[in-house]
Design goal:
The protein is mainly α. 69% of the residues lie in helices and 1% in strands.
Length: 417
């Protein structure tokens, strides 16, 4: 049953709250004037999860865009329209796919498909908040191979300077967070799942901020031991990118404790592997594949496990030359390509690159193995295994190509998300 309330709405939304005079405001609708329920048949979602979530997102964003334009056309076009475009174009929707297939793995009631898709859509809007503000903090010019949002604002208002463009992007991130929370709050959740879903959502947002702050803190303080780097990787990626979406799916399904634990454990392993692979891509990846300039993590002095391990190995072996290169280059904002090449050679010579690669593969295999050992029912088990392999960069397993064609590959990404 759906959670109790005066109204049960077929598209999984709650009715708008009463105004102070006891009336209801007009319902926000799609451009054509009719509410647009995002409740396709479960089999249709199975065949193309990203498309189903994107349709739901379009409905949600249409509603909010209409409201924003009534407030002010400049605000609507400069901020809300950019938020909409960023959210709807370019992402691979890995988190929604993990959520949906975890819901299916938990044998969720398919009558709640609309609610599940809305929570999946909220994840994508929250992702927009994280990415836009991440780019501001990193002063990153690119995202997904295109100008970052603050870069785009700066091009529109070149005389205003970079501070204005970054402030506008921060507000876009704030607006995205508000929209994501609105979607979760306005979704009619299954009665037995409501408390668990909202608790996971609350915890996930706080973990996301904690991981971001520790990342920044490591850059300015130079605190970069291997154990702390793994902790940061877990907070900023292992949890937010993989484990929590899977936990949300299990909660929406009302899955039993064993299934929920298996899905969360598998997600955490694959999520850490995802971050370790991202650290490698940040130094060795090709920009046309990763969507970001190569070497930015070195220039920004990010406290990655890759760099921490290289430093620890250089210290253990007495490699003073390697230590000097790392001390001079990590965190040097204007690092030339020649010096960046020296850092790459140090990461190779100390064996750090190979060790991180192996560790990512082990974490990824461990995550996939948990699902295999637990005999998660098909087709959900197969789809989740392929998503985790892709997230961890483990390469395809048996029948992976079929699953990738249906569910969509991980593809290029920039940063932690």
């Amino acid at each position: 049953m759906l959670s109790s309330g005066a109204h049960d709405v077929s598209d999984g939304t709650r009715p708008p709250p009463l105004t102070p005079d006891g009336t209801r405001p007009p319902a926000l609708t799609r451009a054509g004037g009719r509410p647009g329920p995002c409740a396709p048949r479960p089999a249709a979602v199975d065949s193309d999860v990203p498309a189903a979530v994107r349709r739901c997102l379009e409905q949600i964003i249409d509603e909010r865009m209409a409201h924003c334009r009534t407030l002010d056309t400049v605000f609507g076009e400069d901020l809300a329209a950019r938020l909409a475009a960023f959210t709807l174009h370019g992402g691979k929707m890995i988190r929604p796919q993990l959520l949906w297939w975890s819901f299916r793995a938990g044998a969720g009631d398919t009558r709640h498909t609309a609610a599940v898709l809305r929570i999946a859509a909220a994840l994508e809007v929250l992702q927009t908040c994280a990415l836009v503000q991440d780019d501001v903090m990193d002063d990153a010019p690119l995202r997904r191979g295109r100008p970052a949002l603050h870069t785009d604002v700066g091009r529109q208002y070149p005389a205003a300077g970079p501070d204005f463009a970054k402030a506008a992007a921060v507000l876009v991130g704030d607006l995205a967070l508000a929209w994501a929370d609105d979607v979760v709050a306005g979704t009619m959740l299954p009665a037995l799942a409501a408390d668990a879903v909202r608790e996971i959502w609350r915890v996930m947002r706080t973990e996301m901020v904690a991981g971001q702050y520790l990342d920044l803190h490591g850059q300015v303080t130079g605190m970069s031991c291997a154990a702390r780097a793994v902790r940061i990787a877990c907070l900023k990626s292992g949890l937010y990118s993989v484990e929590r979406p899977m936990a949300l799916g299990a909660a929406l399904a009302g899955a039993d404790a064993r299934t929920s634990q298996i899905l969360s454990a598998a997600g955490r392993c694959a999520g850490i592997a995802f971050q370790l692979r991202d650290d490698l891509d940040g130094v060795f990846g090709a920009p046309h594949t990763t969507g970001k300039p190569s070497g930015d993590d070195i220039r920004q002095g990010k406290p990655t496990y890759l760099v921490a391990l290289a430093r620890a190995r250089a210290e253990a072996s007495g490699d003073t030359e390697a230590l000097a290169v790392l001390a001079d280059c990590v965190g040097a904002r204007r690092l030339a390509e020649g010096r960046l090449a020296e850092v790459r050679r140090v990461l190779e010579r100390t064996g750090a690159r190979q060790a991180v690669q192996r560790r990512a593969e082990r974490f990824g295999a461990r995550g996939v193995g948990r699902l295999t050992d637990a005999a998660v029912p098909e087709p959900a088990g197969g789809r989740l295994r392929e998503l985790l392999r892709a997230a961890a960069g483990c390469g395809p397993g048996p029948a992976a190509r079929v699953a990738d064609d249906a569910a969509g590959p991980l593809g290029a990404h920039r940063g932690r998300r």
